[in-house]
């Protein structure tokens, strides 16, 4: 029983920490342009190499 009393506050604290990190990332604009980063890999800006 003492194990549960020890683990429940830890689990709640980690959950609140994760929720806080999620709201921080929303506020800082991490989820503004989800498609831009995915499509940026397809843009070929390198000049061709002359051999």
TrEMBL record:
Keyword Transmembrane: yes
Any Pfam family hit: FixS
Membrane-traversing stretches: 6-26
InterPro entries assigned: Cyt_oxidase_maturation_cbb3
Keywords: Membrane, Transmembrane, Transmembrane helix
Transmembrane in keyword set: yes
PANTHER family noted in UniProt: FIXS PROTEIN
Protein's UniProt name: Cbb3-type cytochrome oxidase assembly protein CcoS
């Amino acid at each position: 029983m003492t194990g549960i009393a020890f683990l429940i506050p830890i689990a709640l604290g980690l959950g609140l920490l994760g929720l806080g990190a999620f709201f921080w990332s929303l506020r800082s604009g991490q989820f503004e342009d989800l498609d831009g980063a995915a499509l940026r890999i397809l843009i070929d800006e390198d000049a061709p190499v002359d051999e």
